[in-house]
Write a structure and sequence with these properties.
- Helix 2 (33-45) packs across helix 5.
- Strands 1-3-2 form a three-stranded antiparallel beta sheet.
- The relative contact order is 0.10.
- The chain has six helices and three strands, in the order ααβααββαα.
- It has a single domain (27-136), classed as Winged helix-like DNA-binding domain superfamily/Winged helix DNA-binding domain (Arc Repressor Mutant, subunit A).
- The protein starts with a helix and ends with a helix.
- It is mainly alpha-helical and 138 residues long.
- The chain is elongated.
- A hairpin with a 7-residue loop joins strand 2 (77-81) and strand 3 (89-93).
- Keywords: DNA-binding, Transcription, Transcription regulation.
- It comes from Marinomonas aquimarina.
- InterPro entries: HTH_MarR-typ, WH-like_DNA-bd_sf, WH_DNA-bd_sf.
- This is Multiple antibiotic resistance protein MarR.
């Protein structure tokens, strides 16, 4: 098996396991995976305009508009309209949205600690550096 084929197999297996874990965590909440990802993006990167957030999530602004509307109604997001251009909308987490983000982020951190507990500090650093390089290709 070539090194690319071997790496491909490992990456697919990792992705499948990570997606399964994420789905199981989200099932235990009252929110959809898409809603959690929206909260996660805003929690990680701060308030964003709709176009930037849609790009970050890899979805259309139309899809995001529906998502944001639901999250605003749930009290997890708030919208801010630009004084210069009322069509420009920035969205941000409310305190309740921030609490959900922090809880979900803590679950991710716990998983990361569990998955890498047998790695040395140097191996964790190398893994992070290499994954960072791979992520830049997206």
């Amino acid at each position: 098996m070539s090194s690319y084929a071997s790496l491909n197999k490992v990456l697919i297996e990792f992705y499948d396991k990570m997606a399964s874990w994420e789905a199981s965590v989200v099932r235990e909440s009252d929110y959809s995976l898409a809603q959690i990802h929206t909260l996660e993006a805003l929690g990680n990167y701060g308030p964003m305009n709709m176009k930037s957030l849609a790009n970050q999530l890899g979805i259309t602004t139309g899809t995001l508009t529906v998502q944001v509307e639901k999250l605003v109604k749930l009290g997890l997001l708030q919208r801010f309209y630009s004084e210069d251009d009322r069509r420009s909308i920035t969205v941000a987490l409310t305190d309740a949205g921030q609490a959900i983000h922090q809880h979900h982020n803590a679950l991710h951190l716990s998983l990361t600690e569990e998955l890498t507990k047998d790695l040395s500090e140097e191996e964790r650093h190398t893994l992070g550096r290499l994954l960072g390089k791979v992520n830049q290709e997206f």
